[in-house]
Amino acid sequence: xxxxxxxxxxxxxxxxxxxxxxxxxxxxxxxxxxxxxxxxxxxxxxxxxxxxxxxxxxxxxxxxxxxxxxxxxxxxxxxxxxxxxxxxxxxxxxxxxxxxxxxxxxxxxxxxxxxxxxxxxxxxxxxxxxxxxxxxxxxxxxxxxxxxxxxxxxxxxxxxxxxxxxxxxxxxxxxxxxxxxxxxxxxxxxxxxxxxxxxxxxxxxxxxxxxxxxxxxxx
Length: 219
Description:
Elements: H1 2-8, H2 11-27, H3 56-71, H4 79-85, H5 88-101, H6 114-126, H7 139-143, H8 148-158, H9 161-167, H10 172-183, H11 196-201
């Protein structure tokens, strides 16, 4: 109890302890070297969105993770000193990286995590996330997985009513491919990927229904 009480009075040391616990479990296999009972739970995004690791954001993440992995001491017994001796900015960067690895904002059909998803929305707002810099509506990522009505709505919002009307008579595959070309030059995002700030700038909450772009289309 004395150790807990004393640690609770020293937040700087607590950050070292938490960062050490996360790094010990993320960068070392089968090691049980952490004293803080925090376990990082990683959601494999590739199982929900094929090819996500190959997009620019995925490659940037992989490069950053590899860079940290190269810096880890070979002997996990030296990890505490490594974390403690980092300068403040570097330690916080490692803490942020390890924390980010555990983020799970995937919305699945019949998802029973409304409070978690609400927290994900608040997190996106807190870091001023703009998904237009990380995601584009393609046949693979979205347009091939949603209904024809949703494709047409996307084109109406992102391009124009006239453009959507021109696609209305096409079959699903042709419509999705044509919509990808039309939306490529826009910053259109499905409602699920829009932050509250983006919706406010657009004039209020979007009235279209959000879709999980990892789910399969209904038609």
